[in-house]
Amino acid sequence: MPRGTYRAGTPISPSKTDKERHVQTQPVIPSHVPPDLVLPCRIFDRMTVTENPYETILPAIHQGPRVFYAANVTPGPVPGWVVRRAEDLRAIYNDTENFYKQGNTQFAAMIGEDWDIIPTELDPPRHAGFRAALNPVYSPSNMAKLDSRVRERARVFIDRFKDRGSCEFIGEFAIPFPVTIFLDLLGFPQEEMNQFLEWETTLLRSPTNGDRITSVHAVKDYLLRAIADRKKNPGTDLISVALTLEVDGRKWTDEEVFGHCFNLYLGGLDTVTANIGLHMHHLATRPDHQTYLRENPKQMVIAIEEFLRAYPAVTTARLCRNPYTLGDATFMPGDYIAMSTPLAGRDPEYYDAPQEVRLDRKPAHVTLGYGIHRCLGQHLARRELQIALQEFLASVPTFGIAPGFSVPFFLGNVIHIDELQLAW
Questions:
Q1: Where are the alpha helices (DSSP H) in 318-395?
Q2: pLDDT tens, 150-162?
Q3: Which of 74, 91, 121, 408 could bridge 117 with an S-S bond, Cβ 3.0-4.6 Å?
Q4: At what angle do helices 254-268 and 209-232 cross, to 10 degrees?
Q5: What is the pTM of this model?
Q6: Domains of the chain: which residue ranges?
């Protein structure tokens, strides 16, 4: 089955072959880009490989220049600058004078519109009012109230395979676990899971824009219908809550509520799934780390931070507002800047022995963003990750990669594992 389809107990098939995914035209490189800084960047190849990119591809990139230009930083393909050092990412995250986010995803422009994904695509000063309204909704205390629901969901999925001796972890847990929570939070029926996953797969993984445009229209139509329904039949879901929020002394417009729901859709269906898969793969290859966390379950909170540091999945973006020099490169207005958290997490100039995963490291990282755009859902994401690993380790004995199975890693703006066959 394609990744966009889920059925309990059935594995999700691997992504398309390298050849099928890598059909694309080459974009024009701007004249202000030095030819010697135009380099391939394999982490954006949008194909499936059987090598672990965190062990091979990322360290190789860190042997190159501080910043370079790649032809394929987003689907299309769209070229842009790749920033590999953690300290440079932090500086750009904080520099709202020279870099901006509005329109960086291109989803609205893709369908000839100009709405914003809220708060992700907002810049100061507009960002502040919306973020201030949203922060209490996604506060640590509010997210803590979801613990019992999250833990119950994890146990339901684990109970289906824990006595079997094996599972396909991505299809049987990593995909449905966070998605069911997302559907609950927005008041959507669980039966909509397959449709949401189909749209999400196309939006985030299609190498061309045709199918992505169709999916943007479909998601927008669905969310606007849901907003209209909640206005007539309000509840306790996040759409109903958003309809009560204010900014600049007024209620949010329907378009603004939609922009926030679209943000929840993008984050709720993909990022946690990718992280859970990468973290579980690590544990499957490190039985000593399994033992440590079984014997020290309270250390899971610290361990998750190291997993987030070592296995970031997402590359976000900024657009350049003014000429800006970094290393041997000069960004020009309109240039696209790829903010690769996978590269930042493995930066040898920022972390001691970045290729080593130390469960007691307590690292500072940018995996969940940095500065004013730190991930709105970070507190829920952390709880989902912690609870997923806690419940799995509590229910399943020492496990590993199933004999003879080659793990498929998908390279792209969200690095993830397509399929993970585990055995115990």
A1: 341-345, 378-395
A2: 999 999 999 999 9
A3: 121
A4: 120
A5: 0.91
A6: 18-423
